[in-house]
Amino acid sequence: MIFLLYKGIIIRIERGGIMIDSHAHLFADEFVNNLDEVVSRAKEAGVNKIMAVGFSKETNEKALELAKKYPHYFYLTAGIHPSEASSNYELDLNSLEDFLQKHQVYALGECGLDYHYGLETKEYQLALFEKQIILSIKYNLPLIIHSRDAINDTYELLKRYPEAYGVMHCYSGSKEMAEKFLKLGYYIGLGGPVTFKNARVPKEVATMVPLDKLVIETDSPYLAPVPHRGQTNESSYIKYVLAEIAGLRQMDSLVLERQLDANTIKLFRLED
Ligand code: NI
């Protein structure tokens, strides 16, 4: 058992428990020289499984390498991020489908819409996302959805495909929109931003999502939680996200952890 003092609250974390980081990119350049240490620290912090989330042709391959190097620890996902959207999207989709057929993949994503950086590729993003939704149905895989400054279009597209399911990763929308995604059956994923001091909306969302529809993530190496905000994020920091949500929901952190783990296992059909 690990005791963590977080914002004045003592949090219990079960060492060797099954805490899961439902979204990380530990194949990133940031970890080229210290991956083994980062994995050791994650294990030490009680993290027992990590989703290795690919988002491009290149990173899907890197995620695959991770899953091969650490079997039953990293779980492979593959997708094409909206920032990759171009007029070549059909070629990218063909190679993604090829990849899905060759490897054991636990989710399709991350994929989605990002109008913050890529408004000029909107047309390609919409086509790329829609085709990936269709692929997820064909292969019966959960979607890992990235949505930035595009929440309404994301919702409208998902609504057209009721057979699709998955998670709104690092959800940053309103409570009202969260209700709508929940109604479609989607899980809500929360990460580092929920710990930020002024993150009023993510904190509200953290308390309104039904317990069986919530998952947590780091999105490592991005979006490190308090007290590491601004630094390189790593999976061991998931404990701060857990602690924050336990505090907000006034729940025992162990009880919460077990529920979140069960949700992630169910969503991605991971072995226990
Ligand atoms: Ni990500």
What can you tell me about this protein's structure?
This protein has helices spanning 35-44, 57-69, 89-102, 115-118, 122-138, 151-159, 175-183, 200-208, 238-249, 253-268, and strands at 2-6, 9-13, 19-24, 47-53, 74-77, 108-114, 143-148, 166-168, 187-190, 214-216. It has 272 residues and is an alpha/beta fold. It has a five-stranded parallel sheet, with helices on both faces. Strands 3-4-5 form a three-stranded parallel sheet, with helices on both faces. The chain has a two-stranded antiparallel sheet with strand order 1-2. The longest helix has 17 residues, at 122-138. The radius of gyration is 17 Å and the shape is globular. The two termini are 20 Å apart. The mean pLDDT is 94. It binds nickel (II) ion. Nickel (II) ion binds at residues 23, 25, 53, 110, 219.
CATH topology: TIM Barrel
- Please give the domain count: 1
Total number of beta strands:
10
CATH superfamily: Metal-dependent hydrolases
Instruction: Round the Cα radius of gyration to an integer and report it.
Output: 17 Å
Give a concise summary.
By secondary structure, the protein is α/β, with parallel strands linked by helices. The chain has ten helices and ten strands.
Give a quick set of tags describing it:
binds nickel (II) ion, alpha/beta, 18% strand, single chain, 10 helices, three-stranded parallel β-sheet, 272 residues, globular, TIM Barrel
